[in-house]
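In response to the reviewer comment on reproducibility (Comment 2.3), we provide here a single inverse folding case reported in full, input and output, so that an independent group could reproduce the run without further information from us. The structure tokens appear first.
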């Protein structure tokens, strides 16, 4: 699978991997696999929002960064409470 190959070679937060995940989510949506599509879309959104939050913090936009970080945390809590598997990202 393209997504797995990109995750293994590029990592989970690489833009090409995120793009593959977003395309797979769109494909699932077209196939009516809404739950699968949602899970992938949330993963993509979580990574991009977390990245934007970090950028806001570096720019001194603390309130904007905090708001996004809260949204990311809420999305993670929703995923965990639904019993879905979560892939944690090592930002180092």
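Designed residues, in position order:
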């Amino acid at each position: 699978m393209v997504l797995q190959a990109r995750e293994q070679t590029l990592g989970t937060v690489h833009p090409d991997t995120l793009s593959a995940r977003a395309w797979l989510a769109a494909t699932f949506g077209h196939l009516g696999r809404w739950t699968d599509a949602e899970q992938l879309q949330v993963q993509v959104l979580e990574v991009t929002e977390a990245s934007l939050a970090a950028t806001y913090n570096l720019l001194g936009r603390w309130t904007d960064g905090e708001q996004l970080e809260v949204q990311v945390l809420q999305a993670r809590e929703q995923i965990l409470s639904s019993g879905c598997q979560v892939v944690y990202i090592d930002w180092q």
